[in-house]
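quick one: flavin-adenine dinucleotide bound model?
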Amino acid sequence: MAFLPPTFEARLARARALTPNVRELVFERVDGEPMAFEPGQWVSALFDGVKRSYSIASGPNGSPQFDVAVTRVPNGPASTRLHAIEPGEVVRFTGPQGFFTRTGPQSLAPALFIATGTGVTPMRSMLQATAARPAKVPIWLVLGVRREEDLLYADEFRALARQDPAVRFEPTLSQPRDGWTGRRGYVQSHVRALWAELAAAAGGEAGASLAPHAYVCGLERMVGSVRDLLRKEMGLPRQQVHSERYD
Ligand SMILES: Cc1cc2nc3c(=O)[nH]c(=O)nc-3n(C[C@H](O)[C@H](O)[C@H](O)COP(=O)(O)OP(=O)(O)OC[C@H]3O[C@@H](n4cnc5c(N)ncnc54)[C@H](O)[C@@H]3O)c2cc1C
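yep, here:
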């Protein structure tokens, strides 16, 4: 029998601009039930015959609330609507669903997260869930956007990296302004070196002997190219490379 994800309604509790093009929306289930999901899963919003998926950006915390972060796509029906709705409005969703998760033994493996834009939201969920757990393995996040003002959740990721030596945050700008001292170019160009460094760091830590896993999320062009790099050029086995495409 085919699995049909449940349908539920959620009310917009609050919203804020994360960047000039990305709006964070905090929804609360109307039925008051806790929002149960695996970090990395997504929900689909349904309106006016349009169904679009959004990764859950927050970690599961037993509350009926969950965050999503939506990039405004010019003339895109769903993202335009989600950028316009007001607190109090109710949206119909299905889900949660998806297999872009860190469940089972791989949750104990070091991880390299590679994201562009709102592709970082499932990783924010995974990082929030990990922050609540004591046994830490290295989790390094490479987030690519065009300009500094497009970096979403950067303050949070920097704070997490300051608090937890296992977390490393590598914001990467493809169109940096003068004075940017961080990484430049496309995320693809940083993956090989970071992977080698992560594998070496993980191998050197007691108890962190599992092979690292890569998690890649964003638009197809980036995801396809990073997958090709990891699988075909670097020869990583399929089980170690996880990806989610937004288009
Ligand atoms: C599993 C999954 C999870 C997703 N999670 C998110 C999420 O957390 N946040 C989010 O903003 N979108 C996410 N998306 C994309 C989302 O479902 C919609 O495709 C997007 O909001 C555009 O819908 P639309 O109706 O506004 O535009 P449409 O007219 O349907 O335009 C679709 C086109 O928009 C472009 N596009 C889609 N997503 C993005 C994006 N994030 N940034 C830039 N361009 C994009 C692509 O070129 C795509 O072909 C996800 C998609 C999938 C399949």
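The chain has five helices and twelve strands.
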